[in-house]
């Protein structure tokens, strides 16, 4: 069992500190491994993983969730050399490895030395199995002479589609035809289509702003494909801001800055994703600023995307912010429930052989509401499970197999929110939720609110009762059962509850 495979299962803490008497899950795993004879490398791997879980949790408390999630959580523990006392820590890219080494190397070394006295130094690098990134060259560009001669490998079979897209970094599946448009993204889609048309765009650069998983990367790729179709032979390139920074640093180290600048400014359309990562390095920002100026002055096109507005970018100098915001900043709003339904229905066209009931689509659209990527991923997982096991897709199967996604997406609705919504809907005063009045015009809304509190919150019957004027839990149970029964035989009551559910869950 390799350590990185073990770590991929999650980097959470072990539940209890080492001082507790009851074994934590990780410690139990180590005891089990020892009993089964899994000594040596397996035992060392488990010990390292357990120590890293403790260290990672401590760093999360010190640094905060955001920094930890972005820089510490992706770390994978590599091998430990007992002779030299060197421990390898791996990150997925050179940029992230350099960033962590610059800012957290001392803290990581100290933490490991405290956890394991035999660790004398920590070495931070890139995982050896990471996928190598192609450089910024296009077909026909002359590559620099190799530094050392090496035997040429035998030619491999070539996929024509790969050749057509590899030169510009575009994903062939991310096109305008595959992008579902709704009220929250219509401005961004229209602006993207204008940028991809032959006519000179009225605005440049185009800045796409959206939170994670809402489709900004999809639109970047779609622009590239549409422009390539409209103008065959156009030089198009897509890259992330991190990729730009890595290429820039490598060019500086290899004394190839002139070639780097010439290649970068020769593109007819440059698409840069996750621009929020252009941080820290003033020289990198300066070069990106000059690249923007060179492209725009030559009448070429630039599209960038980020998870926040230009003015909200941290660590970016004012001149660059001014250039980024001088064109059009197009927001992509989180997908509303109508758009989520459309996305699921569009995605279902790929799975014609699998029947997905309408109630499952409605359930997914209502529950998975954080971002589109999770929504599509949840549907894919559900259909894949059904196909592999031969089970029909059902609401029960969705609840069983998508537990993690569903729990992460469920908004924490409070009883106070429920009471406010019910009082507004039935036009009763908020104080009536806790009053002792028994008039029907007050009792029924109060019962509906109790029912919704039980359905939408994790609160127990006694807890709900306390929020309704200190009522007994039996009163809450009676209200929940009564509303459940009324919904089955009273269409008006069922309609009221459905309306309130939509208001509270959207």
Automatic annotation (TrEMBL):
Residues annotated as signal peptide: none
Chain residues that bind ATP: 213, 215-217
Zinc-finger is among the record's keywords: no
Domain AAA+ ATPase span(s) in chain numbering: 202-350
GO molecular function: ATP binding; DNA replication origin binding; lipid binding
Coiled-coil residue spans: none
Region (Domain I, interacts with DnaA modulators): 1-142
Entry GO CC: cytoplasm; plasma membrane
Assigned keywords, A-Z: ATP-binding, Cytoplasm, DNA replication, DNA-binding, Lipid-binding, Nucleotide-binding
Subcellular location: Cytoplasm
Region of interest: Domain IV, binds dsDNA: 387-506
GO biological process, one term: regulation of DNA replication
Major localization class: cytoplasm
Sequence ranges assigned to domain Chromosomal replication initiator DnaA C-terminal in this UniProt record: 414-483
Region (Disordered): 1-42, 132-151
Pfam families named among the record's database cross-references: Bac_DnaA, Bac_DnaA_C, DnaA_N
Domain of life: Bacteria
Entry-linked PANTHER family: CHROMOSOMAL REPLICATION INITIATOR PROTEIN DNAA
Protein's job: Plays an essential role in the initiation and regulation of chromosomal replication. ATP-DnaA binds to the origin of replication (oriC) to initiate formation of the DNA replication initiation complex once per cell cycle. Binds the DnaA box (a 9 base pair repeat at the origin) and separates the double-stranded (ds)DNA. Forms a right-handed helical filament on oriC DNA; dsDNA binds to the exterior of the filament while single-stranded (ss)DNA is stabiized in the filament's interior.
Protein family per UniProt: Belongs to the DnaA family.
Assembly description: Oligomerizes as a right-handed, spiral filament on DNA at oriC.
Domain remark in the UniProt entry: Domain I is involved in oligomerization and binding regulators, domain II is flexibile and of varying length in different bacteria, domain III forms the AAA+ region, while domain IV binds dsDNA.
Name by which UniProt lists this protein: Chromosomal replication initiator protein DnaA
Lineage of the organism: Bacteria, Pseudomonadati, Pseudomonadota, Alphaproteobacteria, Sphingomonadales
């Amino acid at each position: 069992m390799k350590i990185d495979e073990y770590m991929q299962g999650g980097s959470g803490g072990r539940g209890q500190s080492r001082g507790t008497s009851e074994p934590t899950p990780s410690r139990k795993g180590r005891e089990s491994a020892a009993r089964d004879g899994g000594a040596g490398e397996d035992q060392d791997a488990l010990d390292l993983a357990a120590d890293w879980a403790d260290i990672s949790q401590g760093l999360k408390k010190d640094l905060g969730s955001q920094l930890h999630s972005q820089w510490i959580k992706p770390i994978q523990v590599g091998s430990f050399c007992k002779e030299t006392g060197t421990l390898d820590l791996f990150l997925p890219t050179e940029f992230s490895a350099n960033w962590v080494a610059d800012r957290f190397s001392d803290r990581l070394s100290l933490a490991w030395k405290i956890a394991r006295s035999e660790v004398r130094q920590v070495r931070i690098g890139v995982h050896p199995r990471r996928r190598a990134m192609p450089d910024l060259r296009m077909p026909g560009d002359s590559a620099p002479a190799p530094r050392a001669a090496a035997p040429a490998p035998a030619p491999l079979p070539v996929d024509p589609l790969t050749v057509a897209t590899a030169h510009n970094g575009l994903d062939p599946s991310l096109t305008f035809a595959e992008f579902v448009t709704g009220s929250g993204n219509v401005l961004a889609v229209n602006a993207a289509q204008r940028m991809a048309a032959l006519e000179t765009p009225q605005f440049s650069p185009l800045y796409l702003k959206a939170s994670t998983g809402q489709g900004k990367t999809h639109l970047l790729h779609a622009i590239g494909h549409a422009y390539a179709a409209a103008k065959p032979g156009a030089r198009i390139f897509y890259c992330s801001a991190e990729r730009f920074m890595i290429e820039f640093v490598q060019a500086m180290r290899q004394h190839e800055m002139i070639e780097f600048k010439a290649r970068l400014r020769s593109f007819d359309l440059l698409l840069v994703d996750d621009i929020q990562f252009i941080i820290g390095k003033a020289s990198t920002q300066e070069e990106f600023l000059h690249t923007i100026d060179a492209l725009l002055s030559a009448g070429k096109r630039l599209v960038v995307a980020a998870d926040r507005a230009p003015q909200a970018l941290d660590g970016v100098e004012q001149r660059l912010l001014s250039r980024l915001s001088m064109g059009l900043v197009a927001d992509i709003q989180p997908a509303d429930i109508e758009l989520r339904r459309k996305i699921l229905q569009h995605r279902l066209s790929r799975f014609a052989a699998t029947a997905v009931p309408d109630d499952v689509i409605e359930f997914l659209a209502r529950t998975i509401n954080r971002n589109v990527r999770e929504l599509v991923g949840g549907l894919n997982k559900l259909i894949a499970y059904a196909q592999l096991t031969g089970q029909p897709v059902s609401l029960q199967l969705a609840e069983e197999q998508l537990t993690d996604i569903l729990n992460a997406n469920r908004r924490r609705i409070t009883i106070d929110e429920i009471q406010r919504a019910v009082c507004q809907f039935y036009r009763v005063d908020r104080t009536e939720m806790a009053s002792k009045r028994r008039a029907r015009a007050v009792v029924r809304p109060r019962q509906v609110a109790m029912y919704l509190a039980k359905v939408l919150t994790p609160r127990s019957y006694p807890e709900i009762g306390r929020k309704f004027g200190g009522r007994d839990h039996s009163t809450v149970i009676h209200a929940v059962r009564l509303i459940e029964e009324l919904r089955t035989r009273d269409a008006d009551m069922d309609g009221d509850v459905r309306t309130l559910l939509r208001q509270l869950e959207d």
